[in-house]
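Page header: ASSEMBLY MODEL / two components / 806 residues total.
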Amino acid sequence: METLVKPELLAPAGCMQRLRTAFAFGADAVYIGGTKFSLRKNADNFNAKEMRQAIDLAHSLGRKVYVTVNVYPLERDMPELPTYLKELDAIGPDALIISDLGVMRLAKEHTSIPLHVSTQASVLHEHTANWWKALGAKRIVVGRELSLDECQEIRQHSDIEIETFCHGSMCTSHSGKCVISNYTAGRDSNRGGCVQTCRYVFDVHDPDTDAVDYSAPIMNSKDLMSLQLVESFIRQGIDSLKIEGRMKSELYVATVVGAYRRALDAVFDQLQNGKEASVDIEAEMREIERMSNRQFTTGSLEERAFASSINYDFPGYQKSHAFAGQVLVVIPDEALLVQVRHPLKEGDQCDFVTPSGVSTEIRLENMADVNGNGLENMPPNRILRLPFVDAVSPLSVMRLRLTEAVCT
Amino acid sequence: MIEFVTYAMSEQDINLAIDAGADHLILEDSKLSVRSYADDYTVPGFDKFVTLAKHARSLKADIRLSANIDKLIHSRHYNLLDAAVASINQAEIPCIRVQDPGVAVYLRDKFSGSFHLATETGNNNEAGAHYYADNEIVSFERQILSNDWTAAAIQQFKASTGCELEFQVHGPVLLQYTDRRLMAGFEVDKRDLNGSADELPHMRQRIADVEGRAYPLYDNPHGHFMYASFDKSLYKHIDELKKCGLRAWLFDGRGESVEYLAEALRAYRQALTDGPSDDTYAQLQALARRNFKPGFFIANNTDYVFEADAQDHAETDTLAKVMDNVKGTSLVIQALEPIGLGYYAVLTPEGKNKRMHIHHMYDLAGNEIESCDPGQLAKINWTKGVYADCILTGKVEK
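Prediction written out in full:
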């Protein structure tokens, strides 16, 4: 029997609450951004104290935290970098995710933290992988243009860990090579400011006549989903599966991490131990499809991405459920306290998605504020008290069923 | 002497470039040059390198030559690399320009010349440039700086660099490059044609209108490319450019008229000694399809404004966050540090400073407590002006 290794499941954590959520739903590791030198300036991100707390929590659970330092800094950014790297070295994350060779050089000089090479570096074959390895990288996050077969080739010819994106929003362009945002919005794509101009509808003109040939969001990539390829990821020896989305909600983190956790565990058990797969992949995919999305593609994982990977007729994000809130506290046999993220009213149909994978439907009744005062409506950013529901645990997420599937 | 560098994909290009004063030609073949306009994707082999090199040297014996291999390579392209390097060696071309350092690693045992690193590699800072130059695996003799560099930053760089620096001074600016054929894909999708990304015709050119600005688009078998709505031109800033101490200036006229490139080469050569002239600039502009701008050469202020928020977050010491506000009755906080009764400084989401007195505290089951541990929630007395998303930043005196 072939020896297989279960890939690490690596989740995004834009803030502490999403970090807790990712671990509760089964992530082996999370990646987070500091307040500097990270590519998601609009995420909440972590200052030094928050980072320490995140790492302490992760290590107490036997999990890992990787910190992104994945910008391509300009010369003017560089003087601050050594101090920041020394600070990170003292905090002690399990890896730094870097893209830029200058950052790598300084990280080697000022830290002893293992280095992962970001997808921003567009590693597409074993010679580039081996080059980074020789410079001291422990892992590469391969370019999203690679197929699974190509990942396996790297695996066969390189003694370096391989991480690949398995889910989430996709840059249409080669990551790290795109500066549309810099030139259209004054926000630097490769220093954390990307405004995703690529998602716009473009009027596409004939250059000779200036007539508009068509108007379409021609660069609007569908979202990556590869739950159905989990067996291939395992067989081809991918070390880590990365979920995109540091700016996405707790619902997204819970749903996607939970689905991939169950798929990985069940498929691995089947391959390793010959057990019958105990997961319904198609049902898990349907759960993911309920959340806001741009439709799904497997990108280049199976073959070079082409027309079907772009959502040329994008009417808006599709979803049948909205993020209603997250359970903060369970008072056994008495109440659930939910932090509300969407306006709710008496009679709304909701369901809870729990870390154990149980989905429990409820109709909102007997709503109250945190002090037990009854109410019929609850705005976002408040704490809602609901009657106790069996099997719902802290960090479970609550979804609101929309009366009809919507595009937003 | 500053070297004038430009691309050439045909004998006509070579004639024109040498006549206009180019010192260094980057020879192109579409199969491995991502945005060559040569349109020779289906011509087998790379004999072209031999023919073009011979032709160039017949016109100017000391012309410097490079071969362009700036495609982002997959393993399926190794056979193309092998064929290309055989012809490059036969042509005695001493330099290969790459975007992917791994290509240089692949070729280092097959090619004894030097490697130049293309601008798309993202050479944004001096530490990175030095590491590429001093690299123990494969070193790069020359690096083409990214277009994000300002004159001031380059001028500081020159004194300490260990490798040659090149910079694009004139021509269209590439903004985006994808392996996906976005325009070809749209047309396949809409017309329900058969075909894959590899098999569709070679070249499409369009203009994308983004908020009233026109961005050239280009689609070829390597993928899709978008260019800036202006052409970069540093002609008016030639005095600043001269102070940068660059080894080479890159002129990119690919996709433009023959006059566009030739006149640019001549104009900059003249301006090196005589300084820029308004008339010449106007003549250059008349040959261009887009307005000229210096790009980020004078200033690069991208994201300065937004970095202040991050700095505030980095320096803010958060003890607890307010999660709920029942007006006149209670607040709920989540502690990041141990929180007890007492007086606290509060920062609102709008940046206003407040203070509050916590004199009662309960767990969420309603039991009275005197302190709250990190990660836990506590219900406390209500304070006017404090609401969800406010943070407690420190304990203060009464």
